[in-house]
Amino acid sequence: MTTIEAVAELRREFSRRGWDTKAPKRIVFELSLHVSIAMAGIALFMICHHPALRVLGILISSIGCMGVGTNTHTSTHYGTSDKRWVNEALSYFGYPMFLGLSATYWWHKHVVLHHPAPNVVGVDGDADLLPWFAITADEVHASSGLRRFYYKRLQFWLFPLALAMNDFSIQSGGWAHVLRALRHRNERKTAHWIDLGALVLHYVLWIGVPLLFWPLPAVAAFYILRGVLLGYAMYAILAPGHFPAEAQRLTEEARHGADFFAVQTAGTVSFRTGVLGRYLCSGLEYQVEHHLFPNISHVHYPEVSVVVQQFCAERGLSYRSYSWGMALWKSWEVLRFPQPVVGHVPVPAQASPSSV
Hints:
The chain is mostly helical.
């Protein structure tokens, strides 16, 4: 049985167990809790004047905002509802309107480019941090002089500081994507206009409305500090899936010459967390499962994971899972010990008919 046939059988098993059904009510309920947490943090920051309470307010609001992002990430993969418009409406709500992150940019960068080719150099933009940081040995070897000294000696230590700009960098990338699309008639779509409107509404809601009640310094401080914390939160949840050295960096030739599912598992690792972490991550800790079955609602991933691990073992596919703390350390450590780009992906083993 080929891997494609085995995956098809696995999908049929998911259907028998009800794991391919969407859970819109539960996911929207979780989303409402995330939004409430974010709003509670804002109120705490603006109403209280004690520095400790204000710091607590920013932390609480940032956690809620990150939860909105991970929750609606399921919607960007059409995993929340069977109705396409519901998924897209929630995507526009969570990304451009609530977080100020372009939805069309995310769909292009994450769904179109990243998911088919995770960690494939030259295709997956998430695997390319140049010129600021080099995460592969090939990038270090291609440099010289002061740049090579920086990559080998300094980038590991400076990277945590740069993460403070992570959220703002993604925001600016999204704006550039939307404006570029709107300037070119052959690229312009209705989705870009909706995206633009939601991005503008983001600043109205997060800056314009608060200015009706609080002074500009407080509103600006909250928005900036929340953005800084979101930059770290995004890294903490998204980086462990693909940054550790165990998540191989692949050449495009290796990708085209390999089994699709082998590529997905070779460039991806999962991480483990507790109950609160699972609520915050909304399934993003199950990265291997998500890359193999991205359209499944995240509420099913804990159960799906057991079957996927067995499937990977039987098919000779990679499956790595670490504690959240270890995965985070490995995501940072790769900047100190960059790994080579791999030009070959192991061919999955052929399972016997009785093993699937």
